[in-house]
Design a protein that fits this description.
Distance between the termini: 73 Å
Number of helices: 13
Shape: globular
Strand content: 5-15%
Structural class: alpha+beta
Largest sheet: 4 strands, antiparallel
């Protein structure tokens, strides 16, 4: 008797292959959702043609459609380009040639929105319940929105008054402040959350998401109190990846809507959001005379980020420049740290001297070369421009220099 041939193994669908490659490379679920959405739109735009029979011309036509007809922003266009490059290069394993008429659009720098201390207190006073506690944490610690939403019980150290951020931007970990004024209300909130967790355990639930392979390494950790979210959702939900039912953290959209309503009630006309609390945290610390290096570490910023707002230069990194003198408005304007500066990502300058760490409201900054001639550009060792500056006249002999990044 002749055996029937085995049925052919079906090839995974395209979007399933994209999803698999994204998860192998540990992309976040938000990036996965965004890339899949852009790839789906790209296929529909070209009449449901398979990407195997498309190439650079079709990519250029779609990106041009986004810019010309849909009027998308520079960041949106770059995200669509990144998704399509991932599809062709990583999933389809195709090396693309030059795409005519398409290049990564450089997003213009934006001035961050900062609330005054009075405006901040007024907005926080309009928040209610857990949303107020979350807003106070955002302002008191400088956390990002998703960092606060994903906060776990084990990350809060009441003894040392600090919060450890494990799931930050770029997977960078850092330690930030736990405001003394929030300790009592936060402990009361955790008592209520713990009672909710105990109820889940009695029902045979109480599981929480664990990153990477921690679930296999520590089988009981997903039910442990220390791994629970500080701000859990009202009811369990279905995990989109594993299909299991767990109690996830609160939806960030809820806090965003609450802050939006609070800003409207206070009559503040600024375009404030949850991230505005982070800008205000940094600016108010600098206005109070705190060292720039301390603020940079609390924010978890990379060494090339600088924030400007009005006359306050909210520097969030060290920028080496050619200089012989500083005159800044705050008493803690400079900190001698030459050795730490030359160990950083910046090289010693070809001419002039290397600066200290500095911060504060700029009253006047005079930047000179060894010859005494004023300079308006800071140059690296290889002659490339590090920063730019804009000098604003404040009187007969006084000028203000606002330094900003150009990279």
């Amino acid at each position: 008797m002749i055996a029937s041939p085995a049925p052919p193994v079906s090839r995974p669908k395209l979007l399933d292959r994209v999803r698999w490659h994204l998860r192998v490379k540990h992309y976040s679920i938000r990036t996965e959702q965004a890339y899949l959405d852009w790839i789906r739109r790209f296929i529909l735009f070209h009449g449901k043609r398979h990407p195997d029979i498309m190439g650079e011309e079709q990519i250029g036509a779609y990106l041009t459609h986004l810019a010309v007809n849909r009027h998308v922003s520079a960041s949106t266009q770059n995200q669509a380009l990144s998704a399509l490059l991932f599809l062709f290069q990583q999933v389809l394993d195709r090396k693309l040639d030059f795409i005519p008429g398409v290049e990564r659009v450089r997003r213009p720098p934006k001035v961050p929105v900062v609330l005054t201390p009075e405006e901040t207190r007024a907005v926080l006073a309009q928040l209610r319940g857990d949303y107020r506690l979350m807003g106070e944490l955002l302002y008191g610690s400088g956390m990002r929105l998703m960092e606060a939403v994903r906060l776990r019980v084990k990350d809060i150290d009441f003894g040392y008054n600090q919060i450890t951020i494990h799931d930050g931007k770029g997977m960078r970990e850092r330690v930030t402040l736990l405001p003394q004024s929030l300790k009592k209300s936060l402990q009361s909130h955790l008592d209520r959350v713990k009672e909710l967790h105990q109820q889940d355990l009695r029902r045979g639930a109480g599981n929480v998401y664990l990153p990477f392979g921690l679930r296999r390494k520590y089988p009981n950790a997903q039910r442990a109190w220390s791994w629970q979210y500080v701000f859990p959702a009202m009811k369990p939900s279905l995990d989109p990846r594993s299909g299991e039912t767990r109690r996830h953290h609160i939806q960030e959209k809820n806090l965003q809507n609450a802050v939006k309503i609070a800003v409207r009630k206070t009559g503040v006309t600024k375009a404030a959001s949850c991230h505005t609390f982070r800008h205000s945290f940094a600016t108010h610390l600098l206005d109070g005379g705190y060292d720039i290096r301390t603020v940079q570490e609390l924010l978890g910023h990379s060494p090339c980020e600088i924030r400007l707002w009005n006359d306050t230069a909210t520097f969030t990194s060290c920028v080496p420049i050619e200089t012989t003198s500083f005159m800044l408005g705050l008493p803690k304007a400079c900190r001698q740290d030459y050795k730490r500066t030359i160990r950083g990502p910046f090289l010693p300058l070809g001419i002039g001297s290397l600066s200290n760490w500095f911060t504060g409201k700029v009253v006047s900054t005079r930047r000179t070369q060894p010859s005494g001639r004023n300079t308006s550009r800071a140059r690296g060792a290889n002659g490339t421009s590090r920063t730019g500056c804009e000098t604003i006249s404040r009187g007969k002999d006084v000028s203000t220099t606002m330094i900003y990044t150009t990279s």
